[in-house]
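Ops channel
N.P.: pipeline sanity check, posting one input/output pair.
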């Protein structure tokens, strides 16, 4: 038996969708444990691209059970749209293959409106939110005034909670943010309609997972975003509003830490981030644009161009420590195919002095400069490689150097977007 957590080891967008899709073959259940539809996981199977924002990436495999855990915040409209699109493609033949926690919190229209209005008023201090209402929903959750899915299924409870929420939210929208308030009627009937559709998917998912683990089934926990966007350990305040690290799998799915056996960090062979915040290795030149175009670095949720830079070993070394990574899945190595030389950030300098560890102080982080070493590129197409030995010598040396710098073994290398364009060095489920 092995239960595996997959986490982003950078600033998100590392290619977790593909890795989860690959590992799902060896799992019985796939569990999404945090975030909301601010995530976008892209999968390419048999040449067909599928983008998922809420439903676990394992849904493309028959005979697997996918679970959206209590740590997720759910936009019912987006969930229903994803289910509909999957069914139109011939996926999700059985509704029993998808379960949603009765305890997760629901994203309401006022959450999205507050998110957008706040960002508009922030000026130069914008965080770069997706405007999907994620942060305001988590605020209500922590403030103990949120609406859970179980509340939505009870019309009387939902009506009471919605009226209470609107009294506060409309004041904030109208008086503080200068935005249009909502009426009870326009939300109530719409969300009751969503509840009727959602009802068949709702379950006590923590109990189901407990029984499956006791029965010896294999569980794959799918994270969203990345370690440096964690609300506690990321580049605060330029972070998301949930616990993106491996520990979030326990609280966001309702399982014991003793039931986690492997933690795989996903990292690109370079690095990207979306939105504002420090990014020491960011390239604002032709190399940065080359990475963006070759890697198709545009957000699957927002379409925004991602900021691109050379691989940052300080970031992934930090992710290895705070997550307790047992392996790294290195993605998009093929994006570096056409570079004559490739740089690696091995550390930072601050005020002319080298730093031993990633700084937690944002004011320091923003002024750090990268320390680089340079390696030769391989200048060849590696997309057909299926074993590590089939990679060019220069590519092998690059992977080995990254492994040494971050202090964690690389267990998978992706050489293209397709499911089959993958080199498996060690299977965490084995």
């Amino acid at each position: 038996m092995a239960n595996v957590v997959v986490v982003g080891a950078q600033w998100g967008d590392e290619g977790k969708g593909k890795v989860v899709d690959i590992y799902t073959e060896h799992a019985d259940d796939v569990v999404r444990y945090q975030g909301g539809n601010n995530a976008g996981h892209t999968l390419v199977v048999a040449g067909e691209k599928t983008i998922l924002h809420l439903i676990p990436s394992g849904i493309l495999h028959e005979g697997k059970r996918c679970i959206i855990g209590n740590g997720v915040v759910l936009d019912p409209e987006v969930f229903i749209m994803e289910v509909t699109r999957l069914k139109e493609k011939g996926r999700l033949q059985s509704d029993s293959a998808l379960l949603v926690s009765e305890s997760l919190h629901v994203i309401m229209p006022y959450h999205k409106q507050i998110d957008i209005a706040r960002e508009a008023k922030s000026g130069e201090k914008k965080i770069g939110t997706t405007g999907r209402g994620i942060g305001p929903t988590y605020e209500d959750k922590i403030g103990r005034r949120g609406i859970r899915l179980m509340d939505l299924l009870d019309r009387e409870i939902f009506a009471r909670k919605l009226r209470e929420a609107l009294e506060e939210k409309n004041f904030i929208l109208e008086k503080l943010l200068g935005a249009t308030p909502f009426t009870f009627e326009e939300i109530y009937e719409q969300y009751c309609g969503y509840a009727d559709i959602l009802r068949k998917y709702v379950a006590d998912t923590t109990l189901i997972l407990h029984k499956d683990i006791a029965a010896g089934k294999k569980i794959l926990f799918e994270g969203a975003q990345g370690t440096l966007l964690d609300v506690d350990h990321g580049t605060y305040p330029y972070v998301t509003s949930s616990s993106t690290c491996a520990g979030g799998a326990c609280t966001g799915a309702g399982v014991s830490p003793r039931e986690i056996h492997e933690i795989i960090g996903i990292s690109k062979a370079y690095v990207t981030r979306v939105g504002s915040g420090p990014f020491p290795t960011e390239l604002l030149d032709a190399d940065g644009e080359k990475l963006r175009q070759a890697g198709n670095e545009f957000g699957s949720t927002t379409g925004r161009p991602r900021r691109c830079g050379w691989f940052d070993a300080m970031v992934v070394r930090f992710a290895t420590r705070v997550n307790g990574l047992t392996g790294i899945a290195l993605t998009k190595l093929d994006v570096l195919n056409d570079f004559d030389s490739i740089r690696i950030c091995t550390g930072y300098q601050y005020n002319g002095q080298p730093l031993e560890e990633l700084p937690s102080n944002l004011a320091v982080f923003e002024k750090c400069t990268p320390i680089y070493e340079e390696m030769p590129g391989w200048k060849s197409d590696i997309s057909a490689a299926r074993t590590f030995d089939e990679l060019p010598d220069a590519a092998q040396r690059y992977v080995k150097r990254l492994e040494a710098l971050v202090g964690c073994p690389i267990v998978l290398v992706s050489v293209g977007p397709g499911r089959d364009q993958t080199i498996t060095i060690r299977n965490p489920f084995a």
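N.P.: looks fine end to end. The two ends are 9 Å apart (CA to CA).
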